[in-house]
Write a structure and sequence with these properties.
It is a single chain. The protein is of the alpha/beta class and 378 residues long. The chain contains eleven helices and ten strands. The longest helix has 24 residues, at 50-73.
Length: 378
């Protein structure tokens, strides 16, 4: 609560103080059900052994079900998204069946958790088609959501997602939708990139970024990176979503559990011995800063800095709106010393329901982002 001096200052400047603002916050809770596949694709290493694969089996047989029971107990099981590699769908069919029956959204996450750059374009296309078929058989609906394994996405990935009618995506951080709707009712979605950290946006089509070739004269590589129209302050009409434009639902390494909380012997950036309270407080700090300041991103004058196309101005004055992605993994958050922290943070967020906080599936966030973009075209 601001003090009287702050309130008086707000009246003089004409700005709204925090307690005068209303909030609309959507918690984008998701689980990447990597299990054994996490050690087969991006986690492939010549020194992987039975102990490493055992962590994946724990994720599939124990960790995933612990998390599912937690989500059901908190009333969140049908308000979230699971990204499931095809390998996990086929290796743990009974567990995946329980997840599907919980009412969640199912999104794709590769087959063997392979990164785009590990494959040829033909292999990437074959993997996507196989996983679409698997998810469709599981849910009775074609998936429209995607998250790239280890957030490794490239230009061909985006083209494939658009070709197959995905609505949203997240290379670094979200998709498939578990509802009886035609694919034309939603835009393709991805959840792997982070052009913005708390607002959904249309995924821009862009050319590959090439690093400098230092074997050549400096004038040949000293040039800016061209940005697509959807990342400029005055986007062209063609940059607005079409029926095939992918909605990006952002997330980043600081919104996920595995890197700091899992020890993976053959992965150079894993930690595993971070106190869970450090991560819990970091997530709270992030949420509270966005609660106070997220509206500033949307109100930024166009001549001061480029604005994300998807970060629409608030439809209602005095409303702060943002999304809060959380990415969990059964082999991490399913462990006994971590799942208690996950429950605490989810209960903390759920307790803010009366203040405008709700848990949403990625498909619902994508649908809302598309509706706002279409309103802006009018």
């Amino acid at each position: 609560m601001p003090d009287s001096k702050d309130a008086e200052s707000a009246q003089v400047t004409g700005t709204a103080t925090t307690n005068q603002r209303r909030h609309r916050v959507r918690v984008a809770l998701s689980v990447d059900f990597d299990a054994v596949s996490g050690h087969l694709g991006t986690g492939k290493h010549p020194d992987n052994n039975m102990s490493d694969y055992s962590q994946g089996i724990f994720a599939g047989k124990v960790g995933a079900l612990r998390l599912l029971r937690l989500f059901k107990r908190l009333g969140l099981a049908d308000k979230m998204t699971w990204f499931i590699p095809g390998h996990s769908m086929e290796t743990f069919p009974a567990e995946v069946k329980q997840i599907v029956e919980s009412g969640c959204e199912i999104g794709l996450h590769g087959y063997s958790h392979e990164g785009a750059y590990q494959m040829t374009e033909e292999q990437e296309s074959d993997v996507l088609r196989k996983c679409i078929d698997l998810a469709t058989q599981l849910t009775g609906k074609k998936p429209i959501g995607y998250r790239a394994p280890l957030y490794q996405i490239r230009e061909t990935t985006i083209s494939l997602l658009e070709k197959h009618g995905f609505q949203y995506g997240k290379p670094l951080a979200f998709f498939s939708y578990n509802q009886t709707r035609t694919n034309n009712s939603l835009n393709p979605t991805d959840s792997s990139l982070t052009h913005h950290d708390s607002q959904p946006y249309p995924l821009p089509l862009t050319s590959p970024i090439h690093p400098p070739d230092f074997s050549k004269p400096a004038p040949t590589w000293m040039h800016p990176t061209p940005l697509p129209p959807s990342l400029t302050s005055s986007p062209a009409p063609s940059s607005f979503p079409t029926s095939s434009t992918i909605i990006e639902i952002p997330c980043n390494w600081y919104g996920e559990d595995e890197t700091p909380l899992s020890y993976l012997p053959h992965v150079h950036n894993s930690h595993g011995y971070v106190d869970v309270r450090v991560i819990e407080q970091m997530w709270k700090d992030r949420f509270e800063w966005l609660w106070e300041h997220a509206h500033e991103d949307l109100e930024q004058p166009a001549d001061e800095a480029p604005r994300q196309e998807g970060a629409e101005r608030q439809g209602e004055q005095g409303v702060t709106e943002f999304i809060f992605p959380i990415v969990l993994h059964p082999d991490t958050s399913g462990m006994a010393h971590i799942i208690g922290m996950i429950e605490r943070i989810l209960v903390w967020l759920k307790g803010k329901k009366g203040e405008g906080v709700e848990f949403c599936r990625y498909e619902d966030i994508a649908r809302d982002a598309k509706a706002k973009a279409e309103m802006r075209k009018m």
